[in-house]
């Protein structure tokens, strides 16, 4: 469907809403009794996340957390993702706003990862229907305005049998407000204690409801300013995460340049004359670049959202319902100016350039383009329409519920970037130049000048004026074009479901649900022409484009076996299965079995076994080629861990036995893994198959009758995922080629004459496997009311007993890597919330606990476990202590029907530890875990109801 058709569909969808508003008063009195009777039926038969069968007790059959609107408002968070990230079962952020160097379509979005199984393996629903995904399968929660939410249900269990692909780790179902009566305006202002990260959130919700229908409209505006890395202790100084970059904003040239390992770099003296060879000195580490000075620690974000729900009872038993969403999100990123190295692009400073201190000799140089930081503005625009009919009828004296519906979700992405240099322009600006009759440097020669070209002196230090200075606006305009990437994803689905009672058993009615779905996923992401041609200093990338469709059918049975007998007040089993037929890889069938046993009224025992799958995404299958600066260990390096320098495979590749792996700036690596100075290429795989999973849960829910208001729950979970779609890593390829001697794995490796790897391709494959298990403990206690107020306690804890991934050792043998306790995979996460109410006043307090973290020792800081081994290989680790953050909110219910609240997240300004190893779980490009608070955040909220 094109853009125009989508807008037409949305207008058609809004038409019944207008009819509902117009006709509701006319039908009100005539249908009041019938509506009340129908409302009672709806209350008796509810549908909860994880099951399609309506019933009175379905919510107890599976481990579900429900966050009410009141629960959400007691927290100082302003996005759905932040609220969900606060759950103890949430893993490390998929793309943290501290991932400063992240690039691509998904940057700027908010995502949730349950159980650390990956954000693509947690399915997001809005009112039971899928949220649209990017081409890489990520579902952006920033699309949903907080003001529209009634509650959030989180199913911590596999549910592919009910919902299909992606529901491996769990399901998040966001339920919006319906038939809201009245109006409500809210304002929120917040700021970090350091005086930055200013946040504002303004929303307005209004609704009109009659006996036959209603319309609810929520409008929201949100903005949070970025936070600069230089304004936090853990990110202000690049030395906290390693040495500063030798690619300095001062600019330096190489003389002599060979051999590479002992090259000497020279930079201009203070007050020296550019071009005078005698006025240059050897650059020192004190003159290196601290790139953190120019980077954002936290990206800025701005969004505008409109959400509307309209529903109308066409008859007493048939209702039309429609959801309409518009969202526009803008995210701003900034990272330091590009570290330009002439050797990476074959663009030395010409020997005939007027700026060359060694006339007649093409001179290698490096210069960080400090004057022009790299910025990216990401715009995401969402149009969503979900509409349909649902109803109720009786057949043979049994009630049946049905619904048919359609979903159209369209996301358009525009990314505008600036700060990467055009290689076409740098080649001219660094080429031959001359001084014209006016004493001005010009490109080319006097005989053949180059029009519209501005010559560049890369050896002129930052802040020093002169011809060829990068501070010259004309030079900046010539070297730095604006880049634009565009993207589009579209989800279209049609569904039909029916559920009801089949027959009675002695223990109760057998319930059934069946349904069908047709869904189509389309997507493309088109990088700028410069990125596609590789003619800029930005990461090279090509177009991602593709689509697939699927047809599915499912069935679910709920069978009560025993009721009201000794040791079985209830014993019920639930069976579900789903058949999915995909246009790209074929079909798959997934089942689920669950049971509920209540030996006594106050004790519930439950368990599930489920199969799951995740279909490969459009980006997995049809993604374009991308590039990145990878960190790896070259086994042919003499000083590399597990070195095989001098063996036949290395020498056959032209690598000298004395070669030392070279990193950024072509400087010998002193710690490993070491980041390449050149871009490596990665790509998709059209032959990928789905990931498959098996999950198990078992738990108890106990509400002891002798302690009124106390509810206890304990759930065990276990997941195993096979055929995981992972990148075929650089280290795996190098090990297979040079250590194991597999020549087929050497084909994509390209080396320079000095031995360092200049090019390597690595793609996607169904190579991954992992297992995890653990426990969730919940304690809720509503104390008796005292003269000094009402107290309630909510304590939620998650314990991870196993998190194992399949990997390879240095010999290429398959090994199991235990990752519990690594950054982001906490052994224990625990939240203790206490709420006090007295009259119109209330206080909410929460303590958020994270257990200790482990990371590889990388040569900086204290190596806590230097003698540690894993799988018979040395694996030294640094262990950091546990961390607890405290949140506090005071609220007052004003007599003029308003609520005023003031609060602080991380009220004691707790600071987490430095994390030196740049692991994926760190979720940050700075030496700090991306899921931790970056300071004390103070806020004020005001809500006025009309």
Task: Walk me through this protein's architecture.
It contains twelve helices and 46 strands. It is mainly beta and 946 residues long. It has a 22-stranded antiparallel beta barrel. The chain is globular, with a radius of gyration of 31 Å. The two termini are 40 Å apart.
Helix-strand category: mainly beta
Shape: globular
Tell me, rounded to a whole number, the average pLDDT.
89
Number of strands: 46
Enumerate how many helices there are, as a single number: 12
Helix content: 10-25%
Give the CA-CA distance, first to last residue.
40 Å
Runs in which pLDDT lies below 50 for 5 or more consecutive residues are: 1-44
C-alpha Rg (nearest Å): 31 Å
What's the main sheet like?
22 strands, antiparallel, barrel
Compile the SSE list and pairings:
Blueprint: H1 3-28, H2 32-44, E1 64-68, H3 69-73, H4 80-85, E2 122-126, E3 129-130, E4 149-155, H5 160-163, E5 170-176, E6 182-192, E7 199-209, E8 213-224, E9 227-228, E10 252-254, E11 265-268, E12 280-282, E13 296-298, E14 300-315, E15 318-335, E16 339-341, H6 342-345, E17 365-368, E18 374-395, E19 398-418, H7 423-429, E20 433-435, E21 441-443, H8 473-479, E22 482-505, E23 508-526, H9 529-533, E24 544-565, E25 568-582, E26 586-600, E27 603-614, H10 618-622, E28 626-628, E29 631-632, H11 648-652, E30 674-675, E31 680-683, E32 691-702, E33 710-727, H12 730-739, E34 749-751, E35 757-782, E36 790-808, E37 814-818, E38 828-838, E39 841-850, E40 853-856, E41 869-870, E42 873-874, E43 877-880, E44 883-894, E45 898-905, E46 937-945
Parallel strand pairs: 2-5, 31-35
Antiparallel strand pairs: 1-4, 2-3, 4-5, 6-7, 6-46, 7-8, 8-14, 9-13, 10-11, 10-17, 11-12, 14-15, 15-18, 16-17, 18-19, 19-22, 20-21, 22-23, 23-24, 24-25, 25-26, 26-27, 27-32, 28-31, 29-30, 32-33, 33-35, 34-35, 35-36, 36-37, 36-38, 38-39, 39-44, 40-43, 41-42, 44-45, 45-46
């Amino acid at each position: 469907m094109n853009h125009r058709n989508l807008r037409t569909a949305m207008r058609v969808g809004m038409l019944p809403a207008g009819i509902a508003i117009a006709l509701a008063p006319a039908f009100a009195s005539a249908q009041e009794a019938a509506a009340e009777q129908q409302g009672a039926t709806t209350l008796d038969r509810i549908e909860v996340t994880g099951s399609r069968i309506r019933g009175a007790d379905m919510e107890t059959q599976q481990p579900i957390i429900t966050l009410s609107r009141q629960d959400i408002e007691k927290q100082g968070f302003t996005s759905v993702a932040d609220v969900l990230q606060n759950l103890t079962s949430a893993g490390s952020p998929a793309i943290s706003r501290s991932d400063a160097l992240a690039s691509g379509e998904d940057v700027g979005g908010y995502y949730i990862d349950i159980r650390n199984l990956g954000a693509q393996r947690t399915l997001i629903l809005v009112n039971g229907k899928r949220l649209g995904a990017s081409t890489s399968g990520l579902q952006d929660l920033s699309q949903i305005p907080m003001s529209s939410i009634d509650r959030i249900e989180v199913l911590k269990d596999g549910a592919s049998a009910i919902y299909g692909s992606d529901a491996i780790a769990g399901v998040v179902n966001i339920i919006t407000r319906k038939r809201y009566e009245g109006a409500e305006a809210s304002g929120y202002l917040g700021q970090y204690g350091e005086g930055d990260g200013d946040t504002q959130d303004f929303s307005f919700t209004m609704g009109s409801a009659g006996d036959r229908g209603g319309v609810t409209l929520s409008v929201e505006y949100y903005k949070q300013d970025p936070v600069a890395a230089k304004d936090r202790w853990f990110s202000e100084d690049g030395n906290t995460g390693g040495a500063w970059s030798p690619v300095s904003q001062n600019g330096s040239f190489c003389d002599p340049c060979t051999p590479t390992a002992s090259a000497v770099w020279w930079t201009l003296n203070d007050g020296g004359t550019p071009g005078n060879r005698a006025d240059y000195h050897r650059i020192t580490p004190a003159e290196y670049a601290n790139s953190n000075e120019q980077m954002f620690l936290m990206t800025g974000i701005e969004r505008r959202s409109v959400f509307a729900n309209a529903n109308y009872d066409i008859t007493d038993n048939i209702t039309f319902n429609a959801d309409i969403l518009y969202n526009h999100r803008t995210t701003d990123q900034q990272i330091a100016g590009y570290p330009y190295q002439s050797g990476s692009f074959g663009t030395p400073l010409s020997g005939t350039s007027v700026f060359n201190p060694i006339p007649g000799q093409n001179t290698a140089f490096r210069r960080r383009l400090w004057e022009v930081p790299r910025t990216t503005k990401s715009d995401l625009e969402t149009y969503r329409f979900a509409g349909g009919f649902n109803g109720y009828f009786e057949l043979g004296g049994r009630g049946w519920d049905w619904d048919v519906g359609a979903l159209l979700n369209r996301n358009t992405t525009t990314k505008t970037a600036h700060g990467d240099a055009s290689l076409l322009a740098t080649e001219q600006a660094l080429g031959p130049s001359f001084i014209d009759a006016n004493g001005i440097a010009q490109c080319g020669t006097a005989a053949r000048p180059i029009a519209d070209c501005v010559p560049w002196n890369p050896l002129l230090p930052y802040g020093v004026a002169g011809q060829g200075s990068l501070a010259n606006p004309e030079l900046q305009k010539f070297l730095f074009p604006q880049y634009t990437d565009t993207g589009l994803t579209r989800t279209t689905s049609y569904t039909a479901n029916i559920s009801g009672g089949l027959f009675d058993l002695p223990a109760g009615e057998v319930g059934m649900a069946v349904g069908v779905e047709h869904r189509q996923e389309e997507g493309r992401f088109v990088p700028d022409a410069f990125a596609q041609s590789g003619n800029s200093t930005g990461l090279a990338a090509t177009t991602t484009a593709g689509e697939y469709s699927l047809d599915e059918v499912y069935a679910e049975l709920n069978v009560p076996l025993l009721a009201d007998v000794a040791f079985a007040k209830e014993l019920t089993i639930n069976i579900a299965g789903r058949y999915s037929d995909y246009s790209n890889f074929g079909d798959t069938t997934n089942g689920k079995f669950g049971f509920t046993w209540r030996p006594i009224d106050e004790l519930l025992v439950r368990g599930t076994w489920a199969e799951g799958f995740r279909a490969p995404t459009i980006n997995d299958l049809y993604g374009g080629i991308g590039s990145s600066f990878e960190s790896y260990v070259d086994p042919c390096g003499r000083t590399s861990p597990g070195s095989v320098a001098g063996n036949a495979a290395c020498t056959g590749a032209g690598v000298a036995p004395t070669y030392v792996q070279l990193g950024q700036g072509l400087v010998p690596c002193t710690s490993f893994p070491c980041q390449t100075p050149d871009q490596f290429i990665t790509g998709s795989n059209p032959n990928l198959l789905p990931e498959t999973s098996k999950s198990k849960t078992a738990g108890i829910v106990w509400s002891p009758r002798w302690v009124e208001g106390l509810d206890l729950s304990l759930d065990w979970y276990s997941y195993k995922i096979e055929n995981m779609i992972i990148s075929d890593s650089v280290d795996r390829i190098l090990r297979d080629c040079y250590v194991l001697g597999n020549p087929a794995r050497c084909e994509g490796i390209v080396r320079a004459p000095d031995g360092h790897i200049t090019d390597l391709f690595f793609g996607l494959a169904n190579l991954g496997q992992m297992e995890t298990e653990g426990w969730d403990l919940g304690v809720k206690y509503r104390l008796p009311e005292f003269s000094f107020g009402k107290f309630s306690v909510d304590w939620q804890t998650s314990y991870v007993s196993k998190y194992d991934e399949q990997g390879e050792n240095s010999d290429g043998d398959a090994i199991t890597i235990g990752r519990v306790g690594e950054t982001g995979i906490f052994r224990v996460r625990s939240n203790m919330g206490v709420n006090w109410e007295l009259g119109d006043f209330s206080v909410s307090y929460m303590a958020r606990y994270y257990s200790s973290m482990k990371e590889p020792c990388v040569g900086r800081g204290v190596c806590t476990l230097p003698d540690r081994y894993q799988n018979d290989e040395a694996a030294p680790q640094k262990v950091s202590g546990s961390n607890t953050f405290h949140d506090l909110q005071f609220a007052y219910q004003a007599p003029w029907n308003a609520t005023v609240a003031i609060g602080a997240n991380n009220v004691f300004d707790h600071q987490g530890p430095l994390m030196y190893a740049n692991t994926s779980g760190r979720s940050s490009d700075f030496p700090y875990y991306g899921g931790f608070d970056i300071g004390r955040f103070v806020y004020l909220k005001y809500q006025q109801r009309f």
